[in-house]
């Protein structure tokens, strides 16, 4: 990794994320009695190539259960693989092309993109279309979306889309994806995680969430948080898709980024801790169970 600029290198010690209820009041604020579905935002989730449709469903279900007013899912396939989600028919499922085409009329207030997106030409085109159109809504970029961003041939254009954006952009890499984005290897990332996450935030001028035990969050201005919740029960496929949906949900609902992003990270880990405390996992804990526990805590936060 190249050297860090002064404003990043001089960043303070990470703020520990322990007591989510006091740190993230915006997440736990009661709803107005007069609220309606239009009061709680609309999230569009883009990803889900054939064989990974579940990644989009997990992110979209997580967003729904975090309270998003409306949730759309766009699959990177020629038609939606399902007419509706049998577990959550509340979700609106589309082929990604159709969703992007209709986006202007759907009132979308945030995007989560990349979960199971895949590496096809269609995936590349969809991401190009989304980032290149410079939407004025926040975008959370996860999983294969990050792999595309890391491609040397694409990086300059997409990086310019991020750095010139007028709304929050959030990258949520695990160490493998962070290594690709920073031209290093996983060992290089893990050797100095605070430095790596700050570097990501600086290089891409965005919010960066470096996942893994003790997830780190860095704001574009260098503010740093370290998560104190979570456990190895989260080490199973799909939990990252859930986190991407949760962050997208809170941003779609208009929660400020400094509450929405570290707040979602804390709540995601706290949900896993809640499951273990109640006899579910760590072994065999599923991403779907994490969503349900997160909803319980969102409505009944630990005192
Ligand atoms: N139900 C579904 O449809 C699922 C789809 N998924 C999607 O599948 C796509 C590819 O995921 P893959 O798991 O194949 O590939 P990844 O790029 O997620 O992981 C590849 C490798 O990165 C390394 N790595 C990941 N996390 C690490 C950590 N915390 N510390 C150290 N090394 C780490 C590991 O060596 C891992 O095998 C993504 O788009 C993802 O969204 C997955 O989320 C799993 C569930
Ligand atoms: N040992 C662990 N302790 C705490 N959190 C973990 C642990 N292992 C994984 N996680 C969390 O689980 C999630 C895994 O995300 P990711 O690697 O993207 O998985 P996937 O792509 O399968 O969804 C991240 O939020 C990560 O921080």
UniProtKB/TrEMBL annotation:
Sites binding AMP sit at: 211-215, 240
The UniProt record lists the EC number as 4.2.1.136
Does the record's keyword annotation contain NADP?
yes
Keywords, alphabetical:
ATP-binding, Lyase, NAD, NADP, Nucleotide-binding
CDD domains for the chain: YXKO-related
Sequence ranges assigned to domain YjeF C-terminal in this UniProt record? 20-301
Which amino acids does the record list as binding (6S)-NADPHX? 55, 116, 174, 241
> In its UniProt record, which GO terms are filed under biological process?
metabolite repair; nicotinamide nucleotide metabolic process
Q: From which domain of life does this come? A: Bacteria
Q: Name one GO molecular function term.
A: ATP binding
What this protein needs as a cofactor is: Mg(2+)
Known catalytic reactions: (6S)-NADPHX + ADP = AMP + phosphate + NADPH + H(+); (6S)-NADHX + ADP = AMP + phosphate + NADH + H(+)
The subunit structure is:
Homotetramer.
Q: Which HAMAP family match?
A: NADHX_dehydratase
The protein in question is named ADP-dependent (S)-NAD(P)H-hydrate dehydratase
